[in-house]
Amino acid sequence: MNNDNLINFSLLRQRANFIRRIYIEEMERHLLAFEKKANDNQINVRWVNDDFELSECLLSICNRNSYRTVCFDLDEIPEFFNNSTQQIRKIPLHDFVNKYENSDLLVTKADFAVVETGDIVFINREINNSLNQVSNLAILLDINKLIVREQDLEPILYLQSYYKNHTFLPNDVKIIQTPFAKICEDEVFGSETPNYRTEQVKIYLLLYDNGVSSILESSSYRESLYCIDCGRCKEVCPVFKVTGQYSPVDLITLKNKNRGEIAKIITKNTTFCANCDVVCPVNIPFTEIMIKQLEQTKIRGNFKKVFANAFSKRNRMNKLNNKVQRYFFLNRYFKKNKELYDYYRSQQEDFFNIQWEENHKRES
Ligand code: SF4
Question: pLDDT tens digit string along 89-145?
Protein backbone atom coordinates (compact mmCIF):
# COMPACT_ATOMS: atom_id res chain seq x y z
CA MET A 1 0.00 0.00 0.00
CA ASN A 2 1.29 3.44 -0.81
CA ASN A 3 1.60 5.33 2.47
CA ASP A 4 1.47 8.65 0.58
CA ASN A 5 -2.25 8.01 0.18
CA LEU A 6 -2.75 7.77 3.93
CA ILE A 7 -1.07 11.02 4.76
CA ASN A 8 -2.32 14.47 4.05
CA PHE A 9 0.97 16.16 3.19
CA SER A 10 -0.55 19.55 2.73
CA LEU A 11 -1.90 19.49 6.33
CA LEU A 12 1.34 18.09 7.66
CA ARG A 13 3.31 20.86 5.97
CA GLN A 14 0.98 23.48 7.40
CA ARG A 15 1.50 21.99 10.83
CA ALA A 16 5.28 21.95 10.37
CA ASN A 17 5.16 25.59 9.28
CA PHE A 18 3.20 26.42 12.44
CA ILE A 19 5.64 24.46 14.65
CA ARG A 20 8.58 26.37 13.21
CA ARG A 21 6.73 29.71 13.42
CA ILE A 22 5.97 29.42 17.15
CA TYR A 23 9.65 28.89 17.87
CA ILE A 24 11.18 31.42 15.46
CA GLU A 25 8.76 34.26 16.30
CA GLU A 26 9.78 34.14 19.96
CA MET A 27 13.20 32.63 19.61
CA GLU A 28 14.85 34.74 22.31
CA ARG A 29 12.39 33.75 25.02
CA HIS A 30 12.48 30.07 24.04
CA LEU A 31 16.28 30.01 23.91
CA LEU A 32 16.50 31.36 27.46
CA ALA A 33 14.00 28.74 28.64
CA PHE A 34 16.02 26.05 26.85
CA GLU A 35 19.28 27.26 28.39
CA LYS A 36 17.74 27.03 31.87
CA LYS A 37 16.39 23.56 31.18
CA ALA A 38 19.76 22.37 29.85
CA ASN A 39 21.61 23.81 32.88
CA ASP A 40 19.11 22.06 35.18
CA ASN A 41 19.92 18.87 33.25
CA GLN A 42 23.62 19.46 34.07
CA ILE A 43 24.61 20.38 30.55
CA ASN A 44 27.21 23.12 30.35
CA VAL A 45 25.80 25.75 27.95
CA ARG A 46 27.95 28.31 26.07
CA TRP A 47 26.90 30.90 23.47
CA VAL A 48 29.03 31.40 20.37
CA ASN A 49 28.50 33.99 17.72
CA ASP A 50 30.68 32.98 14.80
CA ASP A 51 33.47 30.68 13.65
CA PHE A 52 36.06 32.73 15.56
CA GLU A 53 34.18 32.54 18.88
CA LEU A 54 33.55 28.86 18.30
CA SER A 55 37.30 28.28 17.88
CA GLU A 56 38.07 30.31 21.00
CA CYS A 57 35.50 28.41 23.02
CA LEU A 58 36.90 25.03 21.91
CA LEU A 59 40.45 26.19 22.59
CA SER A 60 39.52 27.29 26.10
CA ILE A 61 37.83 23.92 26.78
CA CYS A 62 40.96 22.10 25.53
CA ASN A 63 43.50 24.31 27.33
CA ARG A 64 41.71 24.32 30.65
CA ASN A 65 41.50 20.54 30.68
CA SER A 66 44.88 19.89 29.00
CA TYR A 67 43.30 17.90 26.17
CA ARG A 68 45.75 16.62 23.59
CA THR A 69 43.42 15.00 21.07
CA VAL A 70 40.16 16.19 19.49
CA CYS A 71 37.91 14.49 16.98
CA PHE A 72 35.65 16.65 14.78
CA ASP A 73 32.36 15.41 13.40
CA LEU A 74 31.63 18.67 11.55
CA ASP A 75 31.64 19.58 7.85
CA GLU A 76 34.63 21.84 8.53
CA ILE A 77 37.01 22.30 11.44
CA PRO A 78 36.65 25.94 12.65
CA GLU A 79 39.39 27.85 10.82
CA PHE A 80 40.97 29.70 13.74
CA PHE A 81 41.09 26.50 15.82
CA ASN A 82 42.70 24.66 12.95
CA ASN A 83 45.37 27.31 12.49
CA SER A 84 46.31 27.80 16.10
CA THR A 85 46.70 24.37 17.62
CA GLN A 86 49.87 22.55 16.72
CA GLN A 87 49.91 20.75 20.08
CA ILE A 88 46.38 19.32 19.74
CA ARG A 89 46.15 16.32 17.45
CA LYS A 90 43.01 15.95 15.34
CA ILE A 91 41.78 12.38 15.27
CA PRO A 92 40.04 11.40 12.01
CA LEU A 93 36.37 10.56 12.57
CA HIS A 94 36.74 7.19 10.87
CA ASP A 95 39.51 6.16 13.31
CA PHE A 96 37.49 7.32 16.30
CA VAL A 97 34.24 5.61 15.28
CA ASN A 98 36.08 2.36 14.53
CA LYS A 99 37.95 2.54 17.87
CA TYR A 100 41.39 2.69 16.27
CA GLU A 101 42.10 5.85 18.28
CA ASN A 102 40.70 7.51 21.38
CA SER A 103 40.04 11.19 21.70
CA ASP A 104 39.92 13.53 24.72
CA LEU A 105 37.10 15.53 23.17
CA LEU A 106 34.54 14.85 20.45
CA VAL A 107 33.03 17.90 18.70
CA THR A 108 29.79 17.14 16.90
CA LYS A 109 26.59 18.82 15.75
CA ALA A 110 23.01 18.22 16.86
CA ASP A 111 20.13 18.33 14.38
CA PHE A 112 17.42 19.63 16.72
CA ALA A 113 16.69 20.31 20.38
CA VAL A 114 13.45 20.55 22.34
CA VAL A 115 12.84 23.58 24.57
CA GLU A 116 10.30 21.88 26.85
CA THR A 117 12.53 18.94 27.83
CA GLY A 118 16.08 20.04 26.98
CA ASP A 119 16.40 17.01 24.64
CA ILE A 120 19.26 17.22 22.13
CA VAL A 121 18.53 15.21 19.00
CA PHE A 122 20.94 13.51 16.56
CA ILE A 123 19.55 11.97 13.40
CA ASN A 124 21.23 9.24 11.35
CA ARG A 125 24.72 10.35 12.37
CA GLU A 126 27.75 8.17 12.09
CA ILE A 127 28.74 8.92 15.69
CA ASN A 128 25.34 7.95 17.18
CA ASN A 129 26.72 4.68 18.52
CA SER A 130 30.08 6.11 19.55
CA LEU A 131 29.00 8.93 21.85
CA ASN A 132 29.84 6.92 24.96
CA GLN A 133 33.37 6.28 23.73
CA VAL A 134 34.45 9.72 24.81
CA SER A 135 34.66 11.45 28.20
CA ASN A 136 34.04 14.96 26.89
CA LEU A 137 31.52 15.98 24.31
CA ALA A 138 31.07 19.41 22.71
CA ILE A 139 27.77 19.68 20.82
CA LEU A 140 27.15 22.48 18.38
CA LEU A 141 23.52 23.52 17.93
CA ASP A 142 22.32 26.21 15.49
CA ILE A 143 20.03 28.51 17.46
CA ASN A 144 17.22 28.23 14.92
CA LYS A 145 17.07 24.42 15.17
CA LEU A 146 14.88 24.18 18.27
CA ILE A 147 11.31 23.02 18.64
CA VAL A 148 9.17 24.24 21.52
CA ARG A 149 7.10 21.20 22.48
CA GLU A 150 8.13 17.57 22.72
CA GLN A 151 5.03 16.42 20.84
CA ASP A 152 6.09 18.53 17.84
CA LEU A 153 9.34 16.69 17.31
CA GLU A 154 7.73 13.69 15.64
CA PRO A 155 6.08 15.49 12.68
CA ILE A 156 9.30 17.39 12.04
CA LEU A 157 11.39 14.21 12.10
CA TYR A 158 8.84 12.51 9.92
CA LEU A 159 8.89 15.26 7.28
CA GLN A 160 12.65 15.62 7.33
CA SER A 161 13.11 11.89 6.88
CA TYR A 162 10.51 11.64 4.15
CA TYR A 163 11.88 14.54 2.12
CA LYS A 164 15.53 13.72 2.71
CA ASN A 165 15.69 9.94 2.50
CA HIS A 166 12.22 8.96 1.22
CA THR A 167 11.72 6.81 4.32
CA PHE A 168 8.92 7.33 6.80
CA LEU A 169 11.01 7.71 9.93
CA PRO A 170 14.73 8.14 10.42
CA ASN A 171 16.61 4.86 10.97
CA ASP A 172 18.66 6.09 13.85
CA VAL A 173 17.62 8.81 16.28
CA LYS A 174 19.71 9.49 19.36
CA ILE A 175 18.40 11.77 22.10
CA ILE A 176 20.54 13.14 24.91
CA GLN A 177 18.99 14.97 27.83
CA THR A 178 21.50 14.66 30.69
CA PRO A 179 25.15 13.57 30.88
CA PHE A 180 25.28 9.81 30.55
CA ALA A 181 27.70 7.26 31.96
CA LYS A 182 30.69 5.93 30.12
CA ILE A 183 32.16 2.53 31.01
CA CYS A 184 35.93 2.77 31.53
CA GLU A 185 38.34 -0.11 31.64
CA ASP A 186 41.34 0.10 34.00
CA GLU A 187 44.18 -2.37 33.75
CA VAL A 188 44.96 -3.84 37.16
CA PHE A 189 48.66 -4.54 37.74
CA GLY A 190 49.28 -8.27 38.11
CA SER A 191 45.71 -9.23 37.20
CA GLU A 192 44.46 -10.58 33.90
CA THR A 193 40.97 -9.20 34.33
CA PRO A 194 40.58 -5.45 33.96
CA ASN A 195 38.69 -3.32 36.43
CA TYR A 196 35.54 -1.63 35.15
CA ARG A 197 34.16 1.64 36.48
CA THR A 198 31.68 4.22 35.20
CA GLU A 199 32.44 7.86 34.58
CA GLN A 200 30.02 10.66 33.74
CA VAL A 201 30.55 12.16 30.29
CA LYS A 202 30.99 15.93 30.45
CA ILE A 203 28.76 17.71 27.90
CA TYR A 204 29.26 21.24 26.57
CA LEU A 205 26.40 22.58 24.47
CA LEU A 206 27.49 25.41 22.18
CA LEU A 207 24.52 27.51 21.04
CA TYR A 208 25.69 28.77 17.67
CA ASP A 209 24.31 32.02 16.26
CA ASN A 210 26.24 32.11 12.96
CA GLY A 211 24.23 35.08 11.58
CA VAL A 212 20.81 33.75 12.60
CA SER A 213 20.00 36.66 14.95
CA SER A 214 20.66 39.21 12.19
CA ILE A 215 18.15 37.44 9.92
CA LEU A 216 15.71 37.26 12.84
CA GLU A 217 15.68 41.06 13.13
CA SER A 218 13.91 41.33 9.78
CA SER A 219 10.30 40.17 9.86
CA SER A 220 10.40 39.83 6.04
CA TYR A 221 13.16 37.19 5.99
CA ARG A 222 12.47 35.38 9.24
CA GLU A 223 10.73 32.52 7.52
CA SER A 224 14.04 31.51 5.95
CA LEU A 225 15.00 30.26 9.44
CA TYR A 226 12.23 27.62 9.41
CA CYS A 227 14.47 25.26 7.42
CA ILE A 228 14.72 21.69 8.78
CA ASP A 229 17.62 20.66 6.52
CA CYS A 230 15.83 18.13 4.36
CA GLY A 231 17.80 19.21 1.28
CA ARG A 232 14.80 18.90 -1.04
CA CYS A 233 15.09 22.44 -2.43
CA LYS A 234 18.63 21.64 -3.62
CA GLU A 235 17.39 18.64 -5.54
CA VAL A 236 14.83 20.61 -7.55
CA CYS A 237 16.84 23.77 -8.18
CA PRO A 238 17.93 23.91 -11.84
CA VAL A 239 20.72 26.37 -11.11
CA PHE A 240 22.16 24.55 -8.11
CA LYS A 241 22.23 21.36 -10.14
CA VAL A 242 24.65 23.04 -12.53
CA THR A 243 26.69 25.29 -10.29
CA GLY A 244 26.56 23.45 -6.93
CA GLN A 245 27.18 26.86 -5.39
CA TYR A 246 24.11 28.47 -3.79
CA SER A 247 21.15 26.29 -2.91
CA PRO A 248 17.74 28.04 -2.65
CA VAL A 249 18.01 28.12 1.15
CA ASP A 250 21.54 29.58 0.87
CA LEU A 251 20.15 32.36 -1.32
CA ILE A 252 17.67 33.46 1.32
CA THR A 253 20.08 33.20 4.26
CA LEU A 254 23.10 35.05 2.84
CA LYS A 255 25.23 36.43 5.64
CA ASN A 256 27.97 39.07 5.84
CA LYS A 257 26.99 40.61 2.50
CA ASN A 258 25.66 44.05 1.63
CA ARG A 259 22.37 44.56 -0.20
CA GLY A 260 24.08 45.03 -3.59
CA GLU A 261 26.05 41.79 -3.25
CA ILE A 262 22.94 39.91 -2.17
CA ALA A 263 21.00 41.20 -5.19
CA LYS A 264 23.81 40.21 -7.54
CA ILE A 265 24.05 36.68 -6.12
CA ILE A 266 20.28 36.20 -6.23
CA THR A 267 19.81 37.38 -9.80
CA LYS A 268 22.73 35.23 -10.97
CA ASN A 269 21.60 32.10 -9.19
CA THR A 270 17.87 31.83 -9.69
CA THR A 271 15.51 31.51 -12.62
CA PHE A 272 12.51 32.18 -10.31
CA CYS A 273 11.17 28.82 -11.42
CA ALA A 274 9.64 28.49 -7.89
CA ASN A 275 10.34 24.76 -7.66
CA CYS A 276 11.69 25.34 -4.16
CA ASP A 277 8.40 27.03 -3.12
CA VAL A 278 6.54 23.95 -4.23
CA VAL A 279 8.62 21.30 -2.47
CA CYS A 280 9.66 22.84 0.86
CA PRO A 281 8.07 20.77 3.69
CA VAL A 282 7.87 23.79 5.99
CA ASN A 283 6.42 26.04 3.27
CA ILE A 284 9.19 28.64 3.12
CA PRO A 285 8.12 31.26 0.52
CA PHE A 286 11.48 31.45 -1.30
CA THR A 287 10.39 33.54 -4.25
CA GLU A 288 8.65 36.08 -2.02
CA ILE A 289 11.72 36.41 0.21
CA MET A 290 14.08 36.83 -2.75
CA ILE A 291 11.85 39.46 -4.28
CA LYS A 292 11.71 41.34 -0.98
CA GLN A 293 15.50 41.24 -0.82
CA LEU A 294 15.81 42.60 -4.34
CA GLU A 295 13.21 45.29 -3.63
CA GLN A 296 15.58 46.77 -1.10
CA THR A 297 18.46 47.28 -3.51
CA LYS A 298 19.23 49.95 -6.07
CA ILE A 299 17.21 48.21 -8.74
CA ARG A 300 14.12 49.48 -6.89
CA GLY A 301 13.46 52.09 -9.68
CA ASN A 302 12.94 49.57 -12.45
CA PHE A 303 11.97 46.77 -10.11
CA LYS A 304 8.62 46.10 -11.73
CA LYS A 305 10.18 45.82 -15.15
CA VAL A 306 12.92 43.47 -13.94
CA PHE A 307 10.41 41.15 -12.35
CA ALA A 308 7.81 41.35 -15.04
CA ASN A 309 10.61 40.11 -17.30
CA ALA A 310 11.73 37.40 -14.91
CA PHE A 311 8.23 36.04 -14.47
CA SER A 312 7.24 36.31 -18.07
CA LYS A 313 10.43 34.42 -18.84
CA ARG A 314 9.35 31.78 -16.37
CA ASN A 315 5.99 31.40 -18.05
CA ARG A 316 7.59 31.23 -21.43
CA MET A 317 10.19 28.74 -20.26
CA ASN A 318 7.43 26.49 -19.06
CA LYS A 319 6.03 26.39 -22.54
CA LEU A 320 9.29 25.88 -24.40
CA ASN A 321 8.93 22.33 -25.45
CA ASN A 322 10.70 22.13 -28.71
CA LYS A 323 14.38 22.44 -29.44
CA VAL A 324 14.16 25.27 -31.95
CA GLN A 325 12.06 27.49 -29.69
CA ARG A 326 14.42 26.77 -26.85
CA TYR A 327 17.49 27.59 -28.91
CA PHE A 328 16.23 31.06 -29.89
CA PHE A 329 14.91 31.79 -26.42
CA LEU A 330 18.20 30.91 -24.76
CA ASN A 331 20.26 32.93 -27.17
CA ARG A 332 18.08 35.90 -26.53
CA TYR A 333 17.87 35.84 -22.74
CA PHE A 334 20.69 33.77 -21.31
CA LYS A 335 23.64 34.26 -23.64
CA LYS A 336 25.55 36.24 -21.02
CA ASN A 337 24.94 33.83 -18.16
CA LYS A 338 27.03 30.87 -19.29
CA GLU A 339 26.16 28.50 -16.47
CA LEU A 340 22.42 28.89 -16.89
CA TYR A 341 22.77 28.86 -20.64
CA ASP A 342 24.61 25.50 -20.53
CA TYR A 343 22.08 24.12 -18.11
CA TYR A 344 19.12 24.98 -20.30
CA ARG A 345 20.86 23.64 -23.39
CA SER A 346 21.36 20.30 -21.69
CA GLN A 347 17.85 20.20 -20.20
CA GLN A 348 15.97 17.17 -21.53
CA GLU A 349 12.67 17.77 -19.72
CA ASP A 350 9.83 19.60 -21.40
CA PHE A 351 9.10 21.89 -18.49
CA PHE A 352 11.06 23.87 -15.96
CA ASN A 353 8.54 24.41 -13.23
CA ILE A 354 7.16 21.55 -11.14
CA GLN A 355 3.91 23.30 -10.26
CA TRP A 356 3.25 24.18 -13.87
CA GLU A 357 3.99 20.62 -14.87
CA GLU A 358 1.61 19.22 -12.25
CA ASN A 359 -1.20 21.57 -13.28
CA HIS A 360 -0.56 20.75 -16.91
CA LYS A 361 -0.80 16.99 -16.20
CA ARG A 362 -4.01 17.51 -14.23
CA GLU A 363 -5.61 19.49 -17.06
CA SER A 364 -4.58 17.18 -19.87
S1 SF4 B 1 14.54 25.23 2.86
FE2 SF4 B 1 15.17 23.48 1.58
S3 SF4 B 1 16.35 22.19 2.96
FE4 SF4 B 1 15.18 23.61 4.25
S5 SF4 B 1 13.28 22.56 4.76
FE6 SF4 B 1 12.83 23.75 2.94
S7 SF4 B 1 13.25 22.36 1.20
FE8 SF4 B 1 14.20 21.45 3.05
Answer: 999 999 999 999 999 999 999 999 999 999 999 999 988 888 888 999 999 999 999
Ligand 1 probe mutation, 227, 247, 283, 354, most atoms within 8 A of CB: 227
Q: Note the pLDDT tens digit of each residue in 279-309.
A: 999 999 998 898 888 777 655 555 556 666 6
Closest CA to 205 of 68, 23, 61, 22: 61
Instruction: Check: CB of residue 303 under 8 Å from CB of residue 201.
Output: no
Q: Which atom of ligand 1 is nearest to the CA of 228?
A: 5
Ligand 1: atom nearest CA of 230 is 8
- pTM to 2 decimals? 0.83
Q: How far, in Å, is the centroid of ligand 1 from the Cα of 120? A: 21
Q: Is 252 in the pocket of ligand 1 (CB under 6 A)?
A: no
Structural domains of the chain ordered from first start: 3-212 (3.40.50.10420), 231-363 (no CATH)
* Distance (Å, whole) CA 222 – CA 52: 25
